[in-house]
Specification:
single chain; globular; Prohead_protease; protease; peptidase activity; hydrolase; Peptidase_S78_dom
Length: 185
Amino acid sequence: MDTETGLERKFARFGDGLEVQDGSVIAGYASLFGAVDQGNDVVEPGAYAASLAALGEKGARVKMLWQHDPTQPIGTWDEVREDGKGLWVKGRLLDSVAKGREAMALIEAGAIDGLSIGYRTRKATKNSKGQRLLTELELWEVSLVTFPMLPSARITAKSEETDLDRSLRDMAAAFEGARAELARR
C-alpha cells in the first residue's frame, strides 16, 4: 500500500498466460468476486458499484496504466462494469503511445496477459479464515501487468477495432455529451 495516498495494488507470480488475437482492443476480468488472491483478500459482489457510479456522474473514466505506473497511461478503458462474475473491462491500447505499441507487442507474443487493479479500500471486514473481505472499493485504475495478484485476472480477448467500431463509439460519445449539456440547462 502507498502510505501517502492509501492506494493499494496487487502483484503476484503464477501460471501460464492466454493466447490473444491481433489488434488493439483488449477485454477481460480485472477482478473476480469471491476469489482469494495472493494477499488473502476477497472482493465481494457490489464492491465497485459506488465507485463506478461516482465516476459516471463526473464523466470520468478508470485509467489504463502500464504496470501501475501513473506516468505511463497506455490506452483507455471504454467499458468497466460489474457483472455476476466480477469487474469486467474492455478498452483500447493506443498505438500512438510508445508504451501502448510495446504493450500490444508483448500481449501478442504472450509475454503479458495480466490485469491488476489500483484502488483504495473504503469498507472491509475479516472473516473467520483471516481473509479480508473487501465490500467497497474506490477504483482508480486497471493496469496491464506481468504478475497480477489474482491468478485469474487475465486478458481474455483482443481484437482489431474497425472503423465502424470507432464511428459508433464516437457517435455514442457525442450523444452522451449532448445529453449531459441538455441536463445542465
